[in-house]
Write a structure and sequence with these properties.
This protein is of the alpha/beta class. It has one domain: Alpha-Beta Barrel (TIM Barrel). The chain is built from 13 helices and ten strands. The chain has an eight-stranded parallel beta barrel, surrounded by five helices. The chain starts with a strand and ends with a helix.
Length: 351
């Protein structure tokens, strides 16, 4: 059995223009001071990381590792969530997602797609240069706007969407395979791949590619009323990364899963800081230990109420106290005897 690593923290929600949140060195020192052992780096934030440079320069990657290591930390994974989102975009979201792309490709969907694919590939190459074997991302979405089928979806619409999604990602997976890097997708509402069923639809179409996996985040499953513990039973072999994020779902006589277009604080389903929501983390950490998950436990903080600094401060001990140091022997080993096949056969009545 294997013990997972942690605690670690995803930097995206904490980065800012003021020190210490505006440089990698500052954020590494800040995270270490809170008790974290690792950091997950958003590759789109130029204040912290130069993705193009990391993909082309081993020297730069050694410098990045040096900065992080000087703070006593490790890099857990690189994140290409925003770029992965742009690998597949339904036209209804063109304007909304254009802001994720480089200025020179905005307003040009074909150029933006090519840019996004190149970015994700650079993420894989940067992982290799950093000595990492996991990158976390989003799949993007063609068919999400048609989630609720009224009027009924035209025959073949969903299949066409997933065929095209797989067509775009399969070459990326092949490239990642060349780099020795797995991709863990955060299964997230607004992505075409948002639960177990859609993950299977996607996985089948990419030929069960070994580099295609999951960044497990139970918060999104709470909001979907999905059994997030049984999910681990089904997909543990494909769980490459773990976002530790809490959530709660409190339906009323006025709103449920869709939450009535309300702000986060007024939604029936909302994200919370660790320990403030409804996620059964003892069950999750136990399941992951049972299935030998040996990756990192990474805080992704998104809370509609608590201050981020408090969420970050509370997150490190919360994760540390939930990580199960797995046993190296069975509790009843003291009663075991030596192997004696002749005695075994006599006990079984086998002559």
């Amino acid at each position: 059995m294997k013990t997972m690593k942690g605690p670690a923290i995803f930097l995206a929600q904490f980065a800012g223009d003021a020190a210490p949140y505006n440089t990698l060195k500052g954020m590494a020192k800040w995270a270490a001071g809170l008790g974290y052992k690792g950091i997950q780096i958003p590759t789109w934030d130029g204040r912290l990381f130069d993705l193009k440079k990391a993909a082309t320069s081993k020297t730069y990657c050694d410098e990045v590792k040096g900065i992080v290591g000087e703070a006593g930390l490790a890099i857990t994974e690189l994140s290409t969530h925003l770029q992965g989102q742009l690998v597949a975009v339904n036209p209804v979201y063109d304007a909304g997602f254009d802001g994720f792309a480089a200025k020179e490709v905005r307003g040009n969907s074909k150029a933006r797609t090519k840019w996004a694919v190149d970015q994700v590939k650079m993420g894989a190459k940067a992982c290799r240069n950093l000595g990492l074997d996991v990158m976390v991302s989003f799949t993007g979405a063609f068919v999400w706007p048609f989630l609720y089928p009224f009027p009924q979806r035209p025959a073949g619409l969903v299949e066409s969407a997933f065929d095209e999604l797989a067509k775009r990602w399969r070459p990326i997976f092949d490239y990642c395979d060349d780099q020795g890097v797995n991709v863990g997708f955060e299964l997230h509402p607004s992505e075409d791949v948002f639960d177990g069923v859609t993950f299977e639809m996607f996985l089948e179409r990419v030929g069960n590619h070994p580099r295609c996996g999951i960044n497990y985040d139970p918060s999104h499953f709470v909001l979907q009323c999905l059994d997030y513990l049984e999910f681990i039973d089904f997909y543990h072999e494909r769980i490459f990364a773990f976002h530790v994020k809490d959530a709660e779902f409190n339906p009323t006589g006025k709103q449920g899963v869709y939450s009535g277009f309300q702000s986060w604080v007024n939604r029936a389903g909302r994200f919370r800081s660790l320990g403030d929501g409804q996620v059964d983390f003892k069950g999750i950490f136990s399941k992951l230990a049972q299935y030998d998950y040996e990756g990192w436990a990474v805080l992704e903080w998104e809370c509609c109420l608590k201050h981020p600094e408090d969420g970050a401060r509370e997150g490190a001990p919360f994760i540390r106290d939930h990580i199960i140091r797995v046993t190296e022997r069975a509790f009843d080993d003291f009663a075991a005897g030596t192997v004696n096949q002749a005695a075994n056969r006599r006990m079984l009545g086998i002559s």
